[in-house]
């Protein structure tokens, strides 16, 4: 019961907050613009689903390539840090050997 009341209270609060925000002229116009864009894109997807699927596939391929590239860069950076740490930690040993 308590969980349901919390969720419904949050939903009611969000709805009241959204309605209160629409009293502002700029917010109302922004909302109209975004809803109009969403409607136009939805109509475009419904009229041409093949193109939408194609575009989604291309976007996923680009994301995958970018993720692979960034992962390789991160691994390279970690290897450089590891090599630097190895060089820094091995220098005191050399100094001790020279002094000794």
Describe the secondary-structure layout.
Elements: H1 2-21, H2 25-47, H3 49-99
Structure description:
There is one protein chain. The protein is mainly alpha-helical and 100 residues long. The chain has 2 domains: 1-46; 48-100. Helix content is 94%, strand content 0%. It is built from 3 helices and no strands. The termini are far apart.
- Strand residue content: under 5%
Number of domains as seen in the coordinates: 2
Q: What structural category do the secondary elements indicate?
A: mainly alpha
Tell me the series of helices and strands, N- to C-terminal: HHH
What is the count of helical runs?
Answer: 3
Helix content: over 70%
Any idea what the radius of gyration is?
A: 28 Å
Which key phrases capture this entry?
extended; 3 helices; 100 residues
Give a brief rundown of this model:
With 100 residues, this protein is mostly helical. Helices cover 94% and strands 0% of the residues. The chain is built from three helices and no strands.
């Amino acid at each position: 019961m308590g969980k349901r009341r919390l969720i419904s209270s949050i939903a009611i609060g969000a709805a009241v907050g959204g309605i209160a925000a629409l009293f502002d002229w700029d917010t109302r116009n922004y909302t109209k613009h975004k809803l109009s864009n969403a409607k136009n894109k939805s109509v475009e997807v419904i009229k041409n689903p093949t193109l939408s699927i194609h575009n989604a596939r291309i976007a996923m391929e680009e994301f995958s390539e970018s993720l692979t590239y960034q992962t390789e860069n991160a691994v390279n950076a970690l290897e450089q840090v590891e090599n630097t740490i190895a060089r820094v930690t091995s220098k005191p040993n050399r100094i001790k050997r020279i002094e000794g």
